Amino acid sequence: MDERLKSLLMIQSIDTQFGNIRREKEHTPKEIERLGEGLDLLKNAMEQDLSTLEELKIERRKVERELEEIDLKLKKSRLRLNDVKTNREYQAVLKEIEELKELAFQREEAVIKWMEEIETQEKECADNTARWEESQEEYKSKEKHFSQRMRELDREVESLNEKRARLSPDIDEDLLRRYNGLRMHLRGRVVVPVIDGVCQECHLGIPPQQYNELIKGDSLQSCPHCSRIIYWGNDSGIEGL
Ligand SMILES: [Zn+2]
Description:
- The chain is mostly helical.
- Helix content is 76%, strand content 5%.
- It folds into two domains: 3-170, Helix Hairpins, CATH 1.10.287.1490; 173-232, no CATH class.
- The protein starts with a helix and ends in a 9-residue tail after the last strand.
- 10% of the residues are buried.
- Bound molecules: zinc ion.
């Protein structure tokens, strides 16, 4: 194989790695952002739950205070029973006591209902808090992992830049210009093997005469269909590049 092509294939391999690194670097911050948004949602839900819990407690206290007032009135009414002078008055106080007892009963039921709701809400709060803490841990560890990965990628870029700089003087200037021009306009590889007469990027057949030239390997050839720089891929041993 043409030595110029070997160096160009190495350049191509480096450029492909650059492309992969760039994609990963673009993708990673978005993933972090998405995790952060999920965390914010959980935090909002948690705060909402806590404020609902506070409201429930206020309701319970309100009913408890009403109950205390009723109990106080009950005590007074019971004391008054000792002082009544007439039977009619006695009956009236008894009726009042019965009514107050009924009211107290209703309030007690209400307090139990609020307490049950508070218990359910407290459980939900605890569950959400646990979930939030778990997600926060996950976020932190992923963020750490991502920033480590970013530093790794920066180091990779540095080493690839060095490799590319070392290779560049070996490459024919015109060839490099042609390569760069093709890279700007085409997707995928621009230096491709032709295997069994077929260009491995556009998958079209090379004319037999040109294929023979390619096998000889004396000159640089382009695919007549997609214009990519081609080389004979059978038994070249560098197909993976
Ligand atoms: Zn082609």
